[in-house]
Design goal:
heterodimer; A: alpha/beta; Rossmann fold; 2 domains; seven-stranded mixed β-sheet; 20% strand; B: 381 residues; alpha/beta; five-stranded parallel β-sheet; two-stranded antiparallel ribbon
């Protein structure tokens, strides 16, 4: 065990540390994007990297997302490991052709001869009062694209572990960084960061017996709060933090649902065609005989992301989660 | 009293003096496409190079004809011919050193073959047995790119990475006239110029993007003129003059290799065949136009130059034809063999390690194949 004092650190600091450690460990790691150099990124995640590693390894690019990702493809072809920043969720859309037509499938179309170890950092989600195009939850698009891994941390330790694992991966990984958790703090030892987690493992954040809340990213703290509040109703809720959307950890999720017999999927992005539908379907297929109730979804509404003054009505909060838990046909138990 | 006078003594502060970042004059292309064959410049051309280009053009023409025939026999799903554009295809491959990289579009199979890739492997995408047949690292040829212009930023990134590593590598990226309207064309050229990446962009302006003529594609004086807006030189060349294309591309490659940054080369050529075998070119252009271009055929131009100067005789022409025939026969023979495909390959290269979800689907397919094999061994339904 380390003797260094465990100090509170923010999630943004953990991301920065992950980038710095990855760059120090491997000269092939290059960070690139709009404003990542001199400014250190609009969320300061790349703070100090240009100074420490030079502008050739932490590069301010022209303002062009397709160009950022497209040139990263060429750099990866030549043996580098680019880490690109998309600045804000909705800003990534111009890069989608590069992402879908090349990043995701070059390994496959070259029969494994040309892997592309690219990490795509996408600050995502709402709750920070951002104006239009600054709060989208775009995970369903990434999940629907074969060839990409998709991860999203909810804790400071996972922010470090998942980003290191993403950069180390020989496949392209989309790292969805929950914007509203950037400044969340946790006791975390920056002198001895958490070992790198293999991508694809979910974790039980809070054990419980009554029902499972299946969630990820920015909705994890909301579910933890809901689980605390549920105690007043006599419900003991288990919270599963997926951490990785692709690959999906059926094992951990289904083990939990088989224990509790009830499940609610919670996420910010829209319900229709969203991740919750896929998750509910997987759980139903695998755990049908253990289920006491249909798998419910608590998600953002199926509307374009609302203006900041209305977003609190859109984002799934504690009350909406508890309401769903209440609808899990408890009378069937008695 | 006018409104301006009412405002009295207001005088706007003059803005700081504006300085252009780059003098645009040397970047502008010449008014006429550069030509060598049939001009005084031809006398300075290396006879050996001209003979090599000739042999490659004849082979290339035969390759186009053979591949087109293979589509009619159902051996290729589709073939976008470069008949009439062989000079661009061949020169693009020949100007590169071994360590350099070629970034072809879906139409540039011929350049890929001229670079040394096995003709059968170069046709894998168009045959339909896999997406890319060849190993991109073996000859340093990127996979044939079907989306338009999206390979251009890859070329920029690769050239940039090589330069960061201190390697002497130039990337040559090929795109059509239609592709210059895509956003990726703009982003690639802009990145290349800002980074001074050792890249050469070759636009083969063959007159049409499927059916849409150049006049509906751009209002620019030429596609080469677009270079000046990015701060790189633009060169205009007769794309059917193999010696001219070779010279202009060689200059651009040399310039890039010396640290001079990217160049945009527009080669004016013509697609004599239809867009692909699925296209009916008579709907958008007349025979007379095609005939005019047949007169300006790349093989005819070079043959005229070589025979006129006594560098090629009937025997030489015949030898080139025979050589091309041998290549075509070998191609036919290989393409008439049915490729052996393993359905399990569907899952092999999606990720470095298959996800649990893919492992499940792989098991499902394996079970289906086993059931199929059992059925075939026993009674068919």
């Amino acid at each position: 065990m380390s003797t260094v004092a465990v100090k509170p650190a923010t999630m943004a600091q953990a991301f920065t540390r992950a980038l710095r450690d990855a760059m120090a460990a491997d000269p092939a790691v290059h960070v690139m994007g709009e404003d990542v150099g001199t400014l250190g990124g609009v969320f300061r995640v790349t703070d100090g990297l240009a100074e420490e590693f030079g502008e050739d390894r932490c590069t301010d690019t022209p303002l062009a997302e397709a160009g950022i990702l497209g040139t990263a493809v060429g750099m990866a072809m030549y043996g580098l490991r680019p880490v690109v920043e998309m600045q804000f969720d909705a800003f990534a859309y111009p890069a989608f052709e590069q992402l879908i037509s090349h990043v995701a499938r070059t390994r496959n179309r070259t029969r494994g001869r040309m892997p592309l170890p690219i990490t795509i950092r996408v600050p995502y989600g709402g709750g920070i009062g951002g104006v239009e195009h600054h709060s989208d939850s775009s995970e369903a698009y990434y999940m629907a694209t074969p060839g990409l891994h998709v991860v999203t941390p909810a804790t400071v330790a996972d922010a470090y572990g998942l980003l290191r694992a993403a950069i180390a991966s020989d496949d392209p990984v989309v790292v969805l960084e929950p914007k509203r958790l950037y400044w969340s703090k946790d006791s975390w030892n920056p002198e001895e960061p958490t070992p790198v987690e293999p991508i694809g493992r979910a974790v039980v954040r809070r054990p419980g017996r009554s029902a499972t809340l299946i969630t990820y990213g920015p909705s994890v703290p909301v579910c933890m709060e809901a689980a605390e509040a549920a105690r007043a109703e006599g419900w003991d809720l288990e919270v599963v933090d997926l951490r990785s959307l692709v690959p999906f950890d059926d094992e951990t999720v289904c083990a939990s649902v088989r224990r509790t017999g009830r499940a609610v999927v919670v996420h910010e992005s829209g319900s229709f065609g969203g991740p919750g539908g896929e998750i509910a379907s997987r759980v139903t297929e695998r755990c049908f005989h253990h289920l006491e109730a249909p798998v419910l979804r608590v998600a953002g509404f199926d509307v374009p992301y609302p203006p900041p003054m209305l977003e609190r009505h859109h984002l799934p909060g504690v009350d909406r989660i508890l309401d769903a838990v209440g609808r899990l046909q408890w009378e069937a138990e008695s | 009293m006018t409104v301006m006078e009412q405002r009295g003594a207001y005088k706007p502060t003059p803005p700081p003096a504006w300085q252009p970042r780059t003098d645009p004059a040397p970047l502008l292309p010449d008014a006429e496409p550069y030509r060598v064959l049939g001009t005084e410049a031809a006398a300075k051309a290396d006879p050996e190079l001209l003979r090599t280009l000739y042999a490659q053009l004849v082979k290339g023409r035969r390759y186009n004809a053979q591949a087109t025939a293979l589509t009619k026999q159902g051996r290729l799903a589709v073939y976008p011919s470069t008949t009439g554009q062989e000079a661009c295809e061949v020169a693009a491959a020949l100007v590169l050193e071994e360590q350099d990289w070629l970034f072809p579009s879906y139409r540039d199979t011929l350049a890929v073959v001229a670079r040394g890739v096995d003709p059968v492997e170069a046709l894998t995408l168009l045959r339909g047995d896999w997406h890319t047949g060849y190993d991109p690292y073996e000859h340093r040829v990127a996979p044939l790119c079907t989306p338009l212009a999206t390979q251009l930023p890859h070329a920029v990134g690769l050239a940039h990475a090589a330069r960061l590593k201190g390697d002497d590598v130039v990337a040559l990226a090929m795109v059509g006239d239609g592709g210059t309207s895509e956003g990726d064309f703009h982003e690639a050229l802009n990145f290349a110029a800002v980074w001074q990446a050792p890249v050469v962009f070759l636009v083969q302006n063959n007159g049409f993007a499927i059916s849409v003529p150049l006049a509906k594609q751009t209002a620019a004086p030429s596609l080469a003129h677009k270079a000046v807006g990015y701060g790189m030189p633009g060169r205009l060349v007769d794309g059917n003059d193999a010696a001219a294309v070779h010279e202009v591309l060689s200059d651009a490659v040399r310039h890039a290799r010396a640290g001079g940054g990217p160049t945009l080369v527009e080669a004016i050529t013509y697609r004599v065949d239809a867009h692909t075998n699925a296209d009916d070119a008579t709907r958008y252009r007349g025979d007379a136009e095609v005939e005019t271009w047949r007169e300006h055929d790349p093989i005819r131009l070079l043959e005229r130059e070589l025979t006129g100067r006594g560098l090629l005789d009937e025997a030489g022409i015949e030898a080139a034809r025979q050589d091309a025939e041998t290549m075509a026969a070998a191609l036919r023979e290989h393409m008439n063999q049915d490729p052996a495909l393993d359905p399990m390959d569907l899952f092999t290269h999606v990720y470095a390690e298959p996800t649990p979800q893919l492992r499940e689907q792989r098991d499902q397919l394996r079970a289906e194949l086993e059931a199929e094999a059992d059925t075939e061994g026993g009674t068919h339904r």
